[in-house]
């Protein structure tokens, strides 16, 4: 009998501590692992450390103590630009505010920006952008100005900008913020159809239950518990939205 296939370890975090310049201890000894094929929800109250944690995974923040390893690269202030680019090409981060990722005159230019920044030729970047917009159902909006998009369309355009880089991991920070019920359903359907490993920073319990294979609960900068989403929600007394 062949041995079972063990999912690859993509992210390995050990003892992560981070303190902001004002002295606030945002992360206090976080351990976490993400394997290929998972969809993990990060749950917890505002200020519990979820977004701060996510920003460490592609080197936007550097640990004060502990270790963050992504795709075999240890991330720190000493990580080379080449290694950072390697990690950021493989891990795509979609910010909570889509306007932070949409700043060029047209949607197509915005979505092509990521692959162009990775060094792809203009036509290849454009083709990647077109494919990504088709995946998120925004191909017809490619020539629109981003500010003409609805909140849900902006969310999908920001996601397309990350998908155009063809990452292995998607990290989405509060992806259902400002979405109406149809937009919420569309996003769940879209994410279910994407092959990438996913990390969802969210307060939306219905969203987490619909997609995640497990949940990790943050509390005061620590991982207070983890397991199946429904069990974690019940254990920490959270209610569905």
Total DSSP helices = 8
H and E string:
EEEHEEHEHHHEHEHEEH
Strand portion: 25-35%
Shape: globular
| Assembly level | single chain
Strand order of the largest sheet: 6-7-8-3-9-10
Largest sheet: 6 strands, mixed
Instruction: Please bin the fraction of helical residues.
Output: 25-40%
Short description:
The protein has helices spanning 50-56, 81-90, 107-117, 122-135, 151-163, 181-192, 205-211, 229-235, and strands at residues 9-19, 25-35, 39-43, 65-70, 73-75, 91-94, 169-173, 197-201, 214-219, 222-227. By secondary structure, the protein is of the alpha/beta class.
Question: How would the blueprint of this fold be written?
Answer:
Blueprint: E1 9-19, E2 25-35, E3 39-43, H1 50-56, E4 65-70, E5 73-75, H2 81-90, E6 91-94, H3 107-117, H4 122-135, H5 151-163, E7 169-173, H6 181-192, E8 197-201, H7 205-211, E9 214-219, E10 222-227, H8 229-235
Parallel strand pairs: 3-8, 3-9, 6-7, 7-8
Antiparallel strand pairs: 1-2, 1-4, 4-5, 9-10
Helix pairs in contact: 3-4, 3-5, 4-5
Structural description of this entry:
- With 241 residues, this protein is α/β, with parallel strands linked by helices.
- It has helices at 50-56, 81-90, 107-117, 122-135, 151-163, 181-192, 205-211, 229-235, and strands at 9-19, 25-35, 39-43, 65-70, 73-75, 91-94, 169-173, 197-201, 214-219, 222-227.
- The strands form two sheets. Strands 6-7-8-3-9-10 form a six-stranded mixed β-sheet, with helices on both faces. It has a four-stranded antiparallel β-sheet with strand order 2-1-4-5.
- Helix 3 crosses helix 4, helix 3 runs parallel beside helix 5 (151-163) and helix 4 crosses helix 5 (151-163).
- The longest helix is centred in the middle third of the chain and has 14 residues, at 122-135.
- The N and C termini lie far apart (46 Å).
């Amino acid at each position: 009998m062949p041995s079972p296939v063990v999912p690859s370890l993509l992210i390995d975090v050990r003892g992560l501590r981070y303190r902001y310049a004002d002295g606030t201890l945002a992360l206090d000894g976080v351990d976490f692992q993400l394997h290929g094929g998972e969809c993990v929800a990060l749950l917890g109250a505002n200020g519990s450390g979820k977004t701060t944690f996510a920003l460490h995974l592609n080197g936007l923040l550097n640990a004060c103590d502990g270790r963050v390893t992504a795709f075999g690269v240890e991330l720190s202030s000493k990580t080379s630009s080449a290694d950072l680019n390697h990690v950021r090409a493989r891990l795509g981060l979609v910010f909570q505010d889509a306007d932070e990722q949409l700043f060029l005159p047209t949607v197509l230019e915005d979505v092509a920006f990521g692959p162009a920044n990775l060094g792809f030729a203009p036509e290849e970047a454009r083709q990647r952008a077109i494919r990504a917009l088709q995946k998120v159902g925004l191909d017809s909006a490619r020539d629109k100005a981003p500010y003409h998009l609805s909140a849900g369309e902006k969310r999908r355009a920001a996601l397309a900008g990350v998908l155009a880089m063809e990452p292995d991991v998607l990290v989405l920070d509060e992806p259902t913020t400002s979405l109406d019920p149809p937009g919420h359903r569309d996003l769940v359907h879209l994410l279910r159809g994407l092959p990438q490993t996913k990390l969802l920073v969210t307060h939306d319990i219905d969203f987490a239950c619909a997609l995640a294979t497990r949940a990790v609960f943050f509390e005061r900068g620590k991982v207070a518990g983890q397991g199946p989403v429904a069990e974690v929600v019940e254990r920490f007394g959270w209610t569905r939205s």
